[in-house]
Amino acid sequence: MERVRFAPSPTGPLHIGGLRTALFNYLYARKHGGIFVLRVEDTDQNRKVDNSEAYIHESLAWTGISPDEDPIKGGKYGPYRQSERKDIYQKHMLELIENGKAYYAFDSGEALGLAREKDEKEKGGFKYNAQNRMLFDNSLTNSKEETANKLKEGNVVIRLKVDADTEVMASDLVRGSVRVNSNELEDKILMKKDGMPTYHFANVVDDYLMKITTVIRGEEWLPSLPIHQLLYDAFGWNPPKFMHLPLILNPSGKGKLSKRDGDKNGYPVFPIQWNETLGYRESGFLPEAHLNYIAQLGWSPKREEELMTLAVMEKEFDVANVQKGGARFDFEKAKWINQQHLASITADELINRFPRIVESLNDVYGGKTVTIVDLVKERLVLMNDLEKATEFFLKDPEDYDEKAMKRIGKFDIKTVLELISESVKENELSELKDAFVQKGEANGIGLGAFMQITRIAIVGGLSGPELFSILEILGKDVTLRRLERLINITTL
Ligand code: GLU
Q: Which amino acids bring their CB within 6 angstroms of ligand 1?
């Protein structure tokens, strides 16, 4: 049984990269009939941000990629919040100390600072490892008694004891094998002075205890892989499979996508609102469309049709098609996908899903709202566009598009408007098109001119959905009132 996990640190909102990691984990679990775990990695109390965990739950709920086990739902391998697993880490930490794979270190920040400064000058960098660990203040250089005494004073960290000059090999499903000489690595801190484990330690212990079979995470964690491999070796555990997802680059392809890019260029980088910053949800994206787009950031499905619901993605997902190279973010593409999804769902469903956006239409049109939404939905890129696209159903135009007015300038507008009004008065709105043709023929004016002038009077310009459908929804009174208004203005 495959078990995967999304393991965010609650240090702020999730951004596109985080959500993409969650999505790939979810898809992998569903594809393999496995379990998707959410584990909250909150051991760094200084970086913890209030509401961040709640935000993560809400974002996942919005997109519909719900974990099977998480801190709220629980599960067989909980607790799922690292801050609640301190005892577990303590126990495993002692195991490593006892079998000589880790040691206590008492060095002061000052002593380390000086050593760092010196090595940076002389060797171009500093690493606390097999080459120099015997020069420092730790349980390898102190006697047993000294160590026992120093332990009582506190102020101690635990470090991983990395052997000198050995090849560390780990493998990644996307990148193949990753090798590094252990001299390149550090004796990483596993437990901090506050008694909390570091990311590396807690992450490995939890992945093992939670029976994670495949670790799927962002490329920024690839440099940690050798340390994680060494930790598995130190415990004598079999490591899970690893899959590091490519970086998400900004639209120019130079550098990682950042919130600053988003702010500057006007696109969201968060799934839902975080403080003052709007997310995809508030900007009018459908969650399935947002997921459909971010799935493409690193995965190229082997199918022609780009549009996919979550259910389709669950079936199609295949690790073999996850790329190594960075994936460039493209907001225009994200919007295009949203537009296609909006067009593909029924007006009824849109109304159910966006009650707030259709509220004013509903107040005026009740059951007819669905006809209105159906009429305009093909034109919506974002759901929020609905307000603008249906504005003329709620109020008479105040201004008329200048270019449009110029285009019809060659006609005697007042006369045509009066002919139009007559047609409206004399006919059912559902038969208006034929009436226009007849009136036009009798007066030497084409249907095109009738329609353009009517449209300007009704919506204020020359664009918009099918004219006669609009008129039928507005009804005769409103139509006549708007025609009258333009007659009055053109006579002024
Ligand atoms: N807590 C890490 C993060 O914030 C988890 C990395 C991992 O998945 O190992 O992304």
A: 7-9, 41, 199, 203, 217, 221
Is 439 a catalytic site residue?
A: no
- Report how far residue 64's alpha carbon sits from residue 395's, in angstroms, rounded to the nearest whole number: 37
Catalytic site residue from 31, 127, 256, 259? 259
Per-residue pLDDT 10s for the chain (492 aa) are 999 999 999 999 999 999 999 999 999 999 999 999 999 999 998 899 999 999 999 999 999 999 999 999 999 999 999 999 999 999 999 999 999 999 999 999 999 999 999 999 999 999 999 999 999 999 999 999 999 999 999 899 999 999 999 999 999 999 999 999 999 999 999 999 999 999 999 999 999 999 999 999 999 999 999 999 999 999 999 999 999 999 999 998 889 998 888 888 899 999 999 999 999 999 999 999 999 999 999 999 888 889 999 999 999 999 999 999 999 999 999 999 999 999 999 999 999 999 999 999 999 999 999 999 999 999 999 999 999 999 999 999 999 999 999 988 888 889 999 999 999 999 999 999 999 999 999 999 999 999 999 999 999 999 999 999 999 999 999 999 999 999 998 876
**Does residue 453 contact residue 411 with C-beta atoms inside 8 Å?**
yes
Residue with CA nearest ligand 1 atom 3: 8
| CA of residue 340 to ligand 1 center, whole Å | 33
**Phi, psi for residue 68 in degrees, rounded to 5:** -85, -30
Helix/strand/coil for 42:
coil
Output the CA 442–ligand 1 centroid distance in Å: 76
CA of 40 relative to ligand 1 center, distance in Å: 9
pTM for the structure as a whole: 0.92
Q: How many CB atoms lie within 10 A of CB 4?
A: 27
Please give the Cα distance from 140 to 231 (Å, whole number): 19
Question: Long-range contacts of range 253-256, CB-CB < 8 Å, 24 or more positions apart?
Answer: 253/326, 253/328
Cα(17)–Cα(250) distance, integer angstroms: 11
